[in-house]
Design brief:
single chain; about 150 residues; three-stranded antiparallel beta sheet; 3 helices; about 25% helix; about 15% strand; rod-shaped
Length: about 150
Amino acid sequence: MSDPTYQDDDIIELTLDDLAGEAADSATHPPQPPAPPVARPRPNDPPDGIDLAEPDVEADQPIRPIVQPRADRYRWQRPTNKDGTGATHVKTFTAKLRADTLAHLDEQINQWLDEHPEYEVKFVNTHIGPLKGKETEDALIVNVWV
């Protein structure tokens, strides 16, 4: 009795000659090794044309803070007066409420005044209040009016 799930046209008959032909094809055309992977640049590789042996010109320059003083980024349009008649500009300095940062604030203010001898300080006011950054902390805010 035959199996009802298979029909005669589903069965493939192979002979030894058929198998010998496949073996002969593989002997005349051996399998090729896989192609080498394509070289892709790694994320940290330098771009082509950059010689890493050359000295870095910026390496000889002093380290500067990321946040530059506002006077370097903005030039005042109005002239300042040194006759004691009134303030024409204001410069704001901030510091956290710690002894080391207050000493640094003194240095910043003195350095700024030394770099600008043409300014005459007319008025100074200070405030203590929250300064928002990554975290909100109390800070000393100093306004120097020149």
